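Below is how a single chain appears once it has passed through the pipeline. First comes the sequence as given, then the structure the pipeline wrote out for it. We keep one example in the README because the format questions we get most often are answered faster by looking than by reading.
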Amino acid sequence: MPVHPDPHFVTADWLSRHLDDPSVAVVDGSWHMPATARNGWTEYLAGHIPRAVFFDVDAIADTTSPLPHMLPSPEAFATAMGALGISHGQTIVIYDSYGLRSAARVWWTFRAMGAEDVVILDGGLPAWIAEHLPLEEGKPSRIEQKTFSPSFKPALVRNFDEVKAALGSEIKILDARSTGRFLGQEAEPRAGLRSGHMPGAINIPFGDVIDGERMKSSSDLRALFASRGVDTSKPIITSCGSGVTAAVLALALDVIGARAVAVYDGSWTEWGGRSDAPVVTD
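Resulting structure:
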């Protein structure tokens, strides 16, 4: 596998120099909230990084769950990755059309499934375009089937019962939603959900860890989490609306060396829709 100096990010220049390397897999993980009326697949067809395959966050998921884009089984994930021509031994480079949003969710998914060398394109598709690098249109002409051997990491994901049991413990729950939604002052974008937050949760909107659609510096991230009372040496669970931007916080924490970090997969879509889930609005 090619060497990249940063364990989390590669630059557009680095990727452009390794596009023809078969040990590098390029993944477009663009996903949009339904209210945006944007479609990741349609935009991928209109223009994507050469050799990139499209990771459909909603389809590569547990489709038996009523909740959106929950983690698939390791077996289902392995089948989907094999069909996309991705093996667990490749350097997997992920990007999205914003810069740093759903790419973090895809990064976390690969890590939860045991991929060891997963990085994000710094600045995403906008950075690639800003460097006047080429784009391709349409579907890939041919994808060579590969074998992805998953090794599921349960420590990286939490379910409803685990999160509820964590309330009041030393485990910090970080909520990546906007402050208005966290305080119950704004309606949730998904119908039928209560507004507010879990008792004891700390609000760190995902945009607070981003500067111009790139991750903030390690020093800025450490100062941010410290200012919110987060001890990164203790266990942390991140949450958001549906488990996408919670992964942005998980990535930021990983960048600064926090290791006991898990994502609440169901996030507020599950919590806010359950009558047995405590919700506060202060």
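The mean pLDDT is 97.

See the next section for the split statistics.
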